[in-house]
Write a structure and sequence with these properties.
Blueprint: H1 11-23, H2 36-39, E1 56-60, E2 66-70, H3 71-82, H4 89-109, E3 119-120, H5 132-136, H6 143-156, E4 160-164, E5 167-168, E6 173-174, H7 184-188, E7 210-216, H8 217-227, E8 241-246, E9 252-257, E10 260-263, H9 264-270, E11 278-283, E12 286-292, E13 300-301, H10 302-310, H11 315-322, E14 327-330
Parallel strand pairs: 1-3, 6-13
Antiparallel strand pairs: 1-2, 4-5, 4-14, 7-12, 8-9, 9-10, 11-12
Helix pairs in contact: 3-4, 3-6, 4-6, 4-10, 4-11
The chain binds zinc ion.
Length: about 325
């Protein structure tokens, strides 16, 4: 669901990384010992005095074993797995703080899905994780630069989480918004005060910002009837489609198909659409979905975070933009 697309490399990276490298330190919350030359050498000292180094995560791995990791090592693996390392440093920092917040909240609330571990590596249940060194193998010549960016994202935000009323939030995120993020109530049915909809600056520059899914009339009929037997899909496809009720940001709240009102989120799942922001038209014996953006639409947009960072926003600004009414602060003890 939150899988992100790897950016096209090449000229873009060249134009983008050179100024980044030249920018050097930004003086956010870097500790004095973290000069760039020193952090290019990977091994991390245990107990280096960081807040993340002092916390651990009990992680259920794919093979069923449970591993206990230092929080910083875990977060590096999460950030590398969840966001393209080519993204701006401040977007990666925002992702690191969101991932830490998600982790701490899981640790505080517990999960019945796997009581033996605080988190797992399944994106459908928790968040993606792959050891940084493993992910770095796919980065080719950029491995050194990218791995350093990931480590820095975790170190720059050391111990910092996103809080609402003093509690770590549900720091949900997704890939690409269609102009606006969506309120949690519209997507998941219950209101969350800090998950409102906000404008999001990314657009046509995002790879696959617009996608098209074409479904044959017979397959469309079978799929809809399996979920909604009450729908009347006799006659020609152009007669099947009724009124659309729109939600925020051009998303489909519900669409009437053969007289049955079907939520946009359900159509998204039924037809594997990249988002619930779409139009549906009947073209002869085919039904055509034109889709904008990627992901559930709630919380931080990753491409939006990158666009904000490119425009000069820092990671705290990015997070307080996407999560309404929150503060950034120290991780609660526990
Ligand atoms: Zn899990």
């Amino acid at each position: 669901m939150r899988k992100v697309i790897v950016l096209a490399l090449g000229l873009y990276l060249l134009l983008y990384l050179l100024p980044l490298a030249a920018m050097g330190e930004e003086g956010l919350s870097r500790r004095p010992e973290e000069n760039p030359a020193a952090t290019l050498t990977p091994p991390r000292a245990q107990g280096d005095g960081s807040a993340d180094g002092a916390r651990t995560v009990r992680l259920l791995l794919e093979d069923g074993t449970v591993e206990e990791l230092a929080m910083d090592e875990y977060l590096e693996g999460v950030v590398a797995a969840e966001m393209p390392a080519s993204f701006h440093q401040q977007a990666l920092n925002a992702q690191a703080a969101a991932a830490r917040t998600y982790t701490v909240r899981k640790q505080l609330t517990g999960t019945s899905a796997h009581p033996e571990a605080e988190l797992c590596t399944d994106t459908g249940c928790c968040q993606a994780y792959r050891p940084l060194a493993e992910t770095a193998e796919s980065w080719g010549e950029q491995a050194g630069v990218y791995a350093e960016k990931i480590r820095r994202a975790v170190a720059d935000t050391d111990g910092q989480v996103i809080l609402y009323d003093g509690e770590p939030i549900q720091a949900v995120f997704f890939s690409t918004a269609a102009g606006e993020t969506l309120p949690a109530a519209e997507v998941w049915g219950s209101e969350v005060p800090y998950l409102t909809g906000v404008e999001s600056p990314e657009g046509e520059e995002v790879p696959n910002y617009r996608t098209r899914v074409t479904v044959g009339a017979e397959e469309f009929r079978e799929t809809v009837l399996a979920a909604h037997p009450e729908a009347d899909l006799s006659g020609a496809p152009e007669d099947w489609l009724g009124p659309v009720e729109h939600g925020s940001g051009g998303s489909v709240a519900s669409l009437t198909v053969g007289g049955a009102a079907i939520p946009g989120t359900e159509l998204r799942e039924l037809f594997s659409l990249r988002s619930a922001s779409f139009t549906l038209t009947a073209e002869g014996e085919e039904l055509v979905f034109d889709v904008t953006g990627y992901g559930h639409g709630v919380g931080m947009s990753q491409y939006g975070a990158d666009a904000m960072a490119e425009a000069g926003a820092g990671w705290r600004e990015i997070l307080t933009w996407y999560y309404t009414g929150v503060t950034i602060g120290d991780c609660p003890a526990g």
